[in-house]
Amino acid sequence: MSGRLDGVRVVVTGASSGIGEATARALATEGATVALLARRTDMLEEIAADIATTGGDARAYQVDVTDAAAVRDTVNSVAADLGAIDVLVNNAGVGSMSLAVDADLDEWHTMVDVNLHGVLHSSHAALPHLVEAAKGARGVADLITVSSASGRRVPKPTSNVYAATKHAVGAFCEALRQELGPQHVRVGLVEPGFVVTDMTSGRDFGELEALEASDVADTIVFMLTRPRRHGINEVLMRAIGQDS
Ligand SMILES: NC(=O)c1ccc[n+]([C@@H]2O[C@H](COP(=O)([O-])OP(=O)(O)OC[C@H]3O[C@@H](n4cnc5c(N)ncnc54)[C@H](OP(=O)(O)O)[C@@H]3O)[C@@H](O)[C@H]2O)c1
């Protein structure tokens, strides 16, 4: 498979379904070699095999992003297997919505562990590889994080902790952007509104035509295929008609 990302080595977390899977498929179609990270190995292997049937190159790596040591080991294994890491897509995430008075504290902790600590673990593990890769032939490396429209504005009371994790991720990425630009590591945030995935299954969108995972994947491909000088730092994207 050949395309605009030939020779680019990418890590996608949360690649076993939804936005991560669609992103991995889109990147492989553009010629990237993609490391698929998540907990459900069977799904990762199925996706990798399917990508291979279309001539793409994807490899499955089982990891729980809440486990810092496991993430470090996995990222280092990916770098050894692929020769380098040019791009990290932080995508793994979970969302549970409830009013604070009704909330299950364990669900709050899980959201913080996956959506915030997971991003910190993956970013920290990948950064040395990205800085190194930026010195190579491509001349740039990329760290893209899938946040949410809820990371820009709290849409409703039940978004409490989910929105808090996404706001935190936005602040972290802005600091990374300021630190890493001089080393030619671009840092970008993607902030989707409603997307049809497992996370939103059972949700009634009413008249609204929600985004597809491939819409987010297309945006990430666009960000990664800009000229080296052109960093896209933030993309807020909502289904047309979504009000919050
Ligand atoms: N759907 C939406 O409307 C929407 C809107 C805005 C932003 N987002 C964001 O988009 C991202 C992807 O979500 P999605 O909508 O595509 O949902 P999804 O289909 O449920 O995908 C979530 C992914 O995260 C992985 N994951 C969850 N916990 C993990 C853990 N502890 N370790 C490793 N991987 C883990 C899951 O894999 P395993 O279960 O196999 O580990 C899965 O691959 C999330 O960050 C989410 O907040 C979604």
UniProtKB/TrEMBL annotation:
<dbReference type="Pfam" id="PF00106">
    <property type="entry name" value="adh_short"/>
</dbReference>
<protein>
    <submittedName>
        <fullName>SDR family oxidoreductase</fullName>
    </submittedName>
</protein>
<dbReference type="InterPro" id="IPR036291">
    <property type="entry name" value="NAD(P)-bd_dom_sf"/>
</dbReference>
<dbReference type="InterPro" id="IPR002347">
    <property type="entry name" value="SDR_fam"/>
</dbReference>
<keyword id="KW-0560">Oxidoreductase</keyword>
<comment type="similarity">
    <text>Belongs to the short-chain dehydrogenases/reductases (SDR) family.</text>
</comment>
<dbReference type="InterPro" id="IPR020904">
    <property type="entry name" value="Sc_DH/Rdtase_CS"/>
</dbReference>
